[in-house]
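Please, structure for the following, as tokens.
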Amino acid sequence: MTIRPIAKERRPTLYFLREIRAFAPVHLDTEVDMTRIKTHRSEAREAGRHYSWVSYVLSAASRALAAHPEANAAIRGRFRPKIARFSAVHGKFTMDHTVNGQRVVLSANLPDLQAADLDEIQRQVDYYTRGDAERLPEFAGARLIRRLPRLIGGAAYRSRIRPLRNRATTIGTFAVTSLSHSAVDGFHSTGGTTVTLGLGRIADRPVARDGRTTVAPVMRLNLTFDHRVIDGAEAADLLTDIKNAMEGFEEDTPAGDGGTNDVGELKQFVLAHTRGQKVVHHEEVLARIRTDSDGEGSWTAEWSRSAEELERDGRLLDACRHHSMARFPFVDGPARRKAQEETVRTFDAWRRQDKDIERLEIDLPTGRVAAWATGLSDGARRPVMVVSGGIVTVKEAWAPTLAAVRRLGMAGIVTEMPGVGENTLPYDGDSWKMLSHLLDHVSDRADTANSYALALSFSGHTALRCALEDGRIRAVLTAGAPVHGFFTDRAWQAGLPRLTVETLAHLMGEKPEAALDRLREWALRPDQLRALNVPVRYVACERDEIIPSSDIALLREHVRDVEFLIHDDVHGAPAHAAETQLWLVRSLLQARGGKASAALAIGLLYRLARLRATSPR
């Protein structure tokens, strides 16, 4: 017999088990006929796609939890307990990994599952299950806790997961754990969340159909709930809804059957915008959307309905943001056209409360540019900050930043790309000239010789191109901007999201295949990048599905003064909005050579946001 200390690789599990001792677990179970899911899984495999059983359960459970907000909650406190109810559904799932030769259980938290389709859920599951647990940044906290002395490690773990405000993002709002790979029929587990689902194996069992007995693939689904938060009736209703969703499984409505756009793709890509723009209640709206056609449950109808409710409550800016989501990704018919008009109307009503925000309209030979501005003066002329979003973002989304620009002692102009919103210019190889025309228009009311471009996504490309020709631009701050490979790499273009290609085609007035052909002419060449003599600050994402990593490498190799903030995230860095914003503000202050104290303060806030995002989970 040998007696030795428990392996340090298992310390996080011990800390977790200590934390859940206050739970009051009650166990329910049911059997799920997996015929439809098994058929879908087999057909997908023949088409070259793989889905795990866990992904199906995460998908069904997240939608059910969205309809049962009482269960999408967490509790803390013994003598004066408090309950937090979460608007978004975050799903934790467990994995069997080997770390330093020791078999351990690890968990990953998948955010906003109520708005994710099955493909997106499976992509995230694959990322964690196929990744190296000793290298994935999401497991950095677990690696740190294993190295710390037990007292310090336990304290660090408790400080991270105990606060209710952290609970959803650290351990999820529900949990799924599976032993379906083994001969286990079913098991109950407590995953630290109010609801935990346990998956047993799928086996052929007799079932009754239409009064006859037949054999079908059946899985035993177990649900453990915390009786302190919900009662048995609520838990039973939730389990029934999950069972029904799985037995009646239908893949998200594809494009062509439910409207113009793929609803799952819309939900996936809109999250970067809802988080970055602080769109309130977006989880509830997304949970109601099932189609991109017309009527109840459609994209435009649900966003517009929510916007109208917010306007009735006097929340004009929030209403404006919801109207802008209703017209996302672009105007393709009467419903989205009305949403676009309502976006402008509600913002105009909101901005009239701020006398320092004015509307600009510039008529050019090929169309009209509209913008919102602040800090323009016939007296003291301030440096200019021009803000623009990408191919799906209207100017009203960023216009609230004008007050912040004014506090920095600058004049601000917020506009949108050609073809987006009210901008009637064509999106073509000369689109970069629009920025120069804007500066010309305000040159008698601002210090345009000192202009800075905060140009996100595709407008970042036009800003870089303009900076080559217009010496008034002193710095380009951007995130997720295409540079070269996006425009020229046919293999990369073949994997672009359909939403991106069709939006580009709409702005260009082309068919999708023709639009991609025209893009080749717009690529920035290495000699052009070497000619850039202004600071370039770029936020990049390692898992960007739109911008190839070759574009980042090209900037790094050829631009003289370039700095990067790299996120382990998808395009738009939806999980890192606060860090991105603080880093860009700090970069602006440094580029301007402003007060060191202000730049230092912003830098400290940025590092705190960065630390918070990478804290132990």
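Residues 84 and 486 are 44 Å apart (CA to CA). The longest strand covers residues 195-209.
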